[in-house]
Structure formats: structure tokens, C-alpha cells
């Protein structure tokens, strides 16, 4: 009978050891039996090591270096002003309107980029959850099989209930720990994506900043050029007027000298001569005013053409080679699941 008890103990120990799980987990148990007659009790202890594959916590964030380069945004960030500048119906836009337009175009581009990166995150989260659930199911089955033997061996109902509770607590603890790691990995993935999106957003802000700076400088240069042209036109009109007035004074002087030679005296019928010269002066001044107005109108036409040509020639490309970022195509991160004891 004593030999029979020893054999039963060895069989029980072998059964407990048979619940090992390949390279990912192992379950070991040692049991002994003692008592009198047909009554006996079983006892033992367990050790549970679980090693889920660390690869399930690895993810790739799809990241293109072109997302932080001007070439990628050429289709949306058009050169201002475009080829329609100077044509009928074209009007100059304000810097504020152009800034809003740039920001909206970049937001649309960022939305497409974010959708791509979010899709990779969702795929990773779904695969991670699937793998984690498979590990939880595997551990649940192993622990259930492991405790089934001890529950069956237990004589008292209280002992069976204690073993069931211990089994359920072990399963719950493992599930909570692996869920926490799944959550941590998912949050890490989301944080990495947000960091990449922030990098792109910062680049967009620099594009807008430099674009606005170029547009403001363009407006300043155009204003300075227009003011300089106005001053030049005023100078031309003044010189034009002075030139014709000088000719008029020469004509008046020549008229007086002619009368002086004919009549032999500069005071001959002076009041009448002065009156005639005054009438002549007023008539010539009226003619000069007409010429000045026509000349000023021509200058205005040419001035507007020059300003329009300068406006259309001064272009903002909204690009700066110093702002280009060089990033890896993929940003990888792996989180080791660790060992649950």
C-alpha cells in the first residue's frame, strides 16, 4: 500500500508538469500524498512564466520626408501673383486673405497626412488587441487546466472554492497587466504620431510665416516703387511747366523788345502794351495748362503700366530651402511586454 501511494504521487507530479507551454510558458507542480486508509490529501505549489512575443508591441509609423519639404506642397502653394496678374478681372489680394488661403490649403494637406498615419495606428491597435486576446485565451486555458487537477484533488468544498478564486484572480491579474501594456503601447503609438504631426505642423507654420513675410515685403516694395514714381511724375510735370513758362517769358520779352525797336522807346504807349501782353500771357498760360494736363495724363498711364509690371514681376514663391527637414521614411518603436510571474 505504501508503494502504491508513492506511485500515485509520482503520477500526480508528472501530470502537473505536463501543462507546460513550449517556449512561451511553463507550469511546474510538486505534489505529495499522506493519510490513513483510503483518505488522502494533495498539496503543491505552482510557478507560471509567460513570455508573449515582443514583436506584437512593435509598430511602424509611415512618415515621408517629403511631408516637410516644399516640393510636396507645390501643387497647393501656388506662386503669387500667378500668370493672370495684370489681365482683365485680376485684383490684388490682401496679405490676410492670402494667409488664410495658405493656412486652409496646408490644413487640407495635413488632414490627408493625418488620415494616413491614423490608419496605420488603427491597424496596429487592431492587430495588437487580437494578439493580446489570443495570449489571454491561451493563459486562461492553461491556468484552467492547471487548477482543474488541484480542484479535483481537494476534499473540502472550501478548499475547492479557494482554488477557484485563486485561479480566477490569476487570470484577472494577467488580463489586467496585458491590457495595461496594450493601452501603454497604443498610447505610445498615438503620442509618436502626434509628435510627427507636430513636426509637420511646425513646418507648415514656418511656410506660412515666410510666405506672409514675403507678401508683406512685396507690398512694401510695391508701395515704395509707386511713391517713387509719383514723385518722379510730379518732378516731370514741374519741369514741363517750367520749360513752357520760360518759353512764354522769352516770347513776352521778345515782343517788348520788338516794340521798343519799332517805336524807339520802351515807354511807348506802355499801358496799352502791358494790357496786350497780359492778355497774351493769359492765353498762353491756358494753352500751357492744357499741355500740362495732357502730359500729366500720359504720365499717369505710363506710371500705372510700370506699377502693374513691377507688381506682376515681384513674385513670392513661399519657399525657403533652409526649412527643409530630412527624416527617415519610417519611425519604429518596440515595447517589450516583459515577464509575468
TrEMBL record:
Q: Which keywords label this protein? A: Coiled coil, Signal
- What is the name listed in the Swiss-Prot or TrEMBL entry for this protein? Uncharacterized protein
Residues forming coiled coils: 146-180
**Span of the secretion signal?**
1-16
The organism is Ciona savignyi (Pacific transparent sea squirt)
Q: Does the keyword Coiled coil apply?
A: yes
